[in-house]
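If it is no trouble, might I ask you for a protein's amino acid sequence along with its backbone structure tokens?
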Amino acid sequence: ARDEKLHILEVATFFGATQAYIERGYQEYLCINSFPSESFTENEAEAFDTYFGNQKGKRIIEILEYPKVSLREWVRKSEMVQNKHWKVSLDDFGMGENNMNAVYLYTPDIVKLDRSLICGIDNDARKQENVRTYLESFHERGMQVLAEGVETKEEVELLSRWRVDMIQGYYFSKPIPANECKEFIRDFSAHKTSEACSYNADS
């Protein structure tokens, strides 16, 4: 039986996030958290298209780590994702249900490595071996890899050498309000450009 509270949360998240995205005039990708046991009903899908129009592209549906999975609901959600040319990411890989079986089921565009795999990796040979194996496997499948929870320069440098596609964590910033993001990105980019120029000058 469907968990009505969970389903309402799923639908409200899609509608609320999309409305805020449009109202604020964003052009970047919008990531929307999604439960693996939920999908729109036919009426909800029609209402979404009626209210927001043809929302093709620029969306990443992030499959949360959750103990309840529904293959039937995933098939419905997958059809919507494909029709709208959205991407799928698998959140918190390495924790609970989001393991290799989930990778085989969802075939995500992006796999987000959980912080537990990353924390202290520069000093942990076992973690290094595991993450490099995952990287090779996912890249062979054409998937991008994002490392979550990166907090130190050493972790960033190691993961960058291994060509991890994306890195996020407190090393770059703690969560900030949406209206501060553009200013942060501009300042961060300027800082990194300055660092690169200084490095080249010293080389």
Summary: Helices lie at 4-23, 42-52, 71-83, 100-106, 115-118, 125-140, 153-161, 181-202. Residues 193-203 have pLDDT under 50 and may be disordered. The radius of gyration is 19 Å. DSSP finds eight helices and six strands in the chain.
